[in-house]
Design a protein that fits this description.
Number of strands: 15
CATH superfamily of the largest domain: Formyl transferase, N-terminal domain
Largest sheet: 7 strands, mixed
Order of helices and strands: EHEEEHEHEHEHEEHHEEEEEEH
Strand content: 15-25%
Number of domains: 2
Distance between the termini: 58 Å
Number of helices: 8
Mean pLDDT: 94
Low-confidence stretches: none
Radius of gyration: 23 Å
Length: about 325
């Protein structure tokens, strides 16, 4: 079976390697090279670098449609897309004989869009998964080939969930490729109401203690990669402080504080701080990173600000 692969970032590389192992990989479509690193040198992206290593032809048009004639000429049976980064036009979707499969990190139709893993955690979902589906013109709306599901831990963050979903996605794609090669093409309509996972903005990661503790915890774990959850403090404190790790207190840790939201309820020496939030909820902030500095335990951070139990974090 002759295939094409569409993808750009590092998360797509193991899927590219799988397709190269299980099929005759005829070509790779990836995004244009971008400046990277301190010197902003233009370097190939992860998928391009791996494709060149594999000796596979690489196509990098500014607009995907520009590559359609060359990709059709490769006479592909099937295409696989993983995090290509741009919508694929109808001319590309029609290039392979069987169609184009996409690996999407959600249980479609939930969380269609660019950031499904992050938004599912921000919204406190207890189940997540991967869907291998057929691309159509409408965003993430095509029929399903196969899927895998998993439970989500209450403290699991985007990094660890991405790793687990990648493993599930590789398993699901391997099954889909085997079935496609055998002529067993499943096309099951998506069932249920769609929800959306739009591209993340920096402002989506802003934390205030006028939020419930559960919301803050979900922001911290869901946006662990980018944009990291942050709070802004008034000078002379460091203005932007990232929240790298949090947890919700158990029932035995609950305490009547009498402090307003943002008040420090408890300090664990060498560890975290317990902070009052909206609706008398509380959160342990364990690890923070002041802008321009290294990560530090929250207790050491507030000690440096000369704050303690009963004081209020001075949010800007």
């Amino acid at each position: 079976m002759r295939t094409l692969f569409y993808g750009t970032p590092a998360v797509a590389v193991p899927f590219l390697e799988l397709v190269a192992r299980k099929t005759v990989l005829a070509g790779v479509l990836t995004g244009p090279d971008q400046p990277a690193g301190r010197g902003l040198l233009v370097r190939p992206g992860p998928v391009k670098a791996k494709a060149l290593e594999l000796g596979v032809p690489v196509f990098q048009p500014q607009r995907p449609i520009e590559a359609a004639p060359q990709l059709r000429a490769l006479e592909p049976d099937l295409s696989v897309a993983v995090a290509y980064g741009k919508l694929l036009p109808a001319e590309l979707l029609a290039a392979p004989r069987l169609g184009t499969l996409n690996v999407h990190f959600s249980l479609l139709p939930k969380y269609r869009g660019a950031a499904p893993v992050q938004w599912s955690l921000v919204n406190g979902e207890r189940r997540a998964g991967v869907t291998v589906f057929w691309l159509v013109a409408e965003l993430d709306a095509g029929p399903v080939f196969t899927r895998r599901e998993t439970d989500v831990g209450p403290d699991e963050d985007a990094g660890s969930l991405f790793e687990r979903l990648t493993a599930l996605g590789l398993e699901a794609l391997a099954e889909a490729l085997d079935r496609a090669a055998a002529g067993s093409l499943l096309r099951q309509p998506q069932a249920g109401e769609p929800s959306w996972a739009p591209r993340l903005r920096r402002e989506d990661a802003r934390v205030t203690f006028a939020m419930p503790a559960g919301r803050i915890h979900n922001l911290a774990r869901g946006l662990r990669l980018w944009p990291t959850a942050f709070m802004e403090l008034r000078p002379p404190a460091p203005r932007l402080v990232r929240l790298l790790k949090t947890r919700l207190p158990g029932s035995a840790e609950a305490a009547e504080s009498g402090t307003p939201p943002g008040g420090i309820v408890a300090v664990e020496r060498g560890g975290g701080i317990l902070v009052e939030c909206m609706d008398r909820s509380q959160i342990w902030i364990l690890t923070v990173q002041p802008e321009g500095k290294k990560p530090v335990c929250a207790a050491d951070f507030i000690n440096g600000l000369r704050l303690g139990v009963g004081r209020v974090l001075p949010l800007a």
